[in-house]
Amino acid sequence: MSIIIMIIVGFIVGLIARAIMPGDQNMGIIMTTILGIIGSVVAGFLGQSLGWYAPGEPAGWIGSVVGAIVVLFVVGLIAKKRA
After folding, report:
1. For the whole model, what pTM was predicted?
2. Which of 36, 37, 41, 46 lies in disulfide reach of 13, CB 3.0 to 4.6 Å?
3. Domain of residue 44, residue span
């Protein structure tokens, strides 16, 4: 059941990050979900490194959205260098 919840939360976080981040992100439902999940992982890793989260504690909603925005920014930089 926790995997289904992670997918749903990842999708919602990905949608919020895409809505906040300026520009056109051509992503489908699956890529939006993966974006949200990766954003949560990035936020959890950075939060634990900075002492905001205890070891094993998941990132919060705001941290997950910020992490997803960071991932979108990095992907945008990589895409611009390719073109």
Report:
1. 0.84
2. 36
3. 3-81
